[in-house]
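Complex record, four chains
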Amino acid sequence: MAETTRRPAHRYGNRPTMKDVAARAGVGLKTVSRVVNGEAGVTADTERRVQEAIEALGFRRNDSARVLRKGRTASVGLVLEDLADPFYGPLSRAVEEVARAHGALLINGSSAEDPDREQELALALCARRVDGLIVIPAGADHRYLEPEMRAGIATVFVDRPAGRIDADVVLSDSFGGARAGVAHLIAHGHRRIGFIGDQPRIHTAVERLRGYRAAMEDAELAVDDAWVSLGSTEPQRVREALTAMLSGPNPVTAVFAGNNRVTVTAVRELAGREGPVAFVGFDDIELADLLGITVIAQDAAALGRTAAERLFRRLDGVDDAPARTVLDTVLIPRGSGEIPPAQAVSAPGRRPR
Amino acid sequence: MAETTRRPAHRYGNRPTMKDVAARAGVGLKTVSRVVNGEAGVTADTERRVQEAIEALGFRRNDSARVLRKGRTASVGLVLEDLADPFYGPLSRAVEEVARAHGALLINGSSAEDPDREQELALALCARRVDGLIVIPAGADHRYLEPEMRAGIATVFVDRPAGRIDADVVLSDSFGGARAGVAHLIAHGHRRIGFIGDQPRIHTAVERLRGYRAAMEDAELAVDDAWVSLGSTEPQRVREALTAMLSGPNPVTAVFAGNNRVTVTAVRELAGREGPVAFVGFDDIELADLLGITVIAQDAAALGRTAAERLFRRLDGVDDAPARTVLDTVLIPRGSGEIPPAQAVSAPGRRPR
DNA sequence: TAGGCCCTGGACAACGTTGTCATCGCGGGA
DNA sequence: TCCCGCGATGACAACGTTGTCCAGGGCCTA
């Protein structure tokens, strides 16, 4: 019987190691390590020999082993809702840029708005020992991350606050933005204004609804329950909500959309209806300028950048108390939000209370 | 002098290891490993003790060490141009979904269309020993990946072919799509059609230009050099190109845009001009339906999915020859491409040659 | 009751790298 | 001339996990 080869099946496709390079260059293992890492203390001649061996063998340092030894992975994890959502693209890119500036790579995954999946992903990243973690929460309870944070994985939450733990958070001013947007509609004469938002377990959805209610209250306007709808951002659901608030006995003359997904569907739907309905949406959208859509814009890239910078400050050892950073939003008037109320015939204006 | 602690500074924040768990549970190291990995051969009672110890210590397996030992990282790398570009979001997400189905995480980075940065990123991912690599090329020479591929890192190129090496490629039919788009304009009566594309070193830009020329040639239409422009997708550049082809002595009556970035700027610019100009753009855009923009749509998600599936088939050991997969594009007429030529007064139609 | 087998558990090495420390050789100062 | 210091180099252990292999004990069978 032939002797079985002793080569373990798991070697990385038989890649050369530092040991191989050392043997070929006729030097010690550590010398190769020095050359590879650009450390001092190697003669020019030795270095040349080592470089030649590296070249000849096609050696590339195995960062897995390096990570194990050094305890730092030079990578950060990003758990977001959906990489395909145009809102998260710039955010993700901004995080990547900051990471790159710090020599770290970015591992990211989509939770698909599922708390279990968020947890699964976040913990998988922790098992990889990412140096830091940036999370856009899908769930409302992040105590599962406490042991990880205690164990040294810096964590920053973005876009929505962490649930039931104390941690760094970077947010946009959802409340203030929504309030300003609705106030804008009120300033243009609207008294009956609808609100369509995301699911009620999502913090931003609730905050924006709160902003809507605050603006209505500021103007002493009553809110009809039929005007308010929180739920999935599925087009079907948004269309139904819109139909309901536009066709009831007390129809709205203006609509505020709680995020970019809702805006896209609402704008489509409104375009297909007759009679002008004023509209303001939270989140800016590409080409919204051409469509004349008035929006409350938040700076997704700034969210990502701010969160990443905070993360790396933590990694650099800054150890102050967890902070909540809130970024301003901007109202960009483009027409849809400045339409005056239709001359209401069937629906007399409500008396302010 | 106090004795210095012997604890190495590099330990992962003092996380418990399997050894610690074993000690606490009063079992051997390997038994813990068995429990953690769900391997058979552990009594229910022993397993319970181990689980309790894991719970109590907050142990989480260190995947870095696991990776080193097993030789598989269960991660794939994706090098794309810009994570913030809405075209790459769905592509990236699709890759992620396939990876997830195979239990792998996704590490991605943006090359910013810079060949050096592409190489730097790709090699960094190889050093991490990602199991596979998906690359959207920025550069034209990928021989630098040959040693890596030989060493066992499966690699698939998407959106654009690899340069100077033989590898799997998944593309959209840029040539056919552009040709169909331009033919569409010709079918609606246009004879003078402009083309604005991305930089000439980008393969898709060249292919789409080729498609444009083919369509013109099919219809026996001459092409004026002033009608064709390849260059950066910076708004400023695109505006200039547009102005040039619309205001020369021989102005175009229709414009074909080479990708989504160009389309966005061109549509903005055309909206600000008087006189209708027909328009077809390569790549679909959100809300293009509302704006009535006729496009040649490619399925970004399908590109990503197809590439990822091919990658994982390679990782599963399939070893056939590198293949080139070309996905069809779809023409979606929405109005802008069906505008007839303006009644030309100043610019008499050119005679077909 | 003895023998053998299976099931459980543990000791040990290895994955490829880096930190620590020892060694070697050479030049300069006493 | 001898010794010290210093720069260059290498031997070795350790990082935390998993694969291999062996030991011991309990149970079944003859």
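Note: The longest helix of chain B spans residues 203-218.
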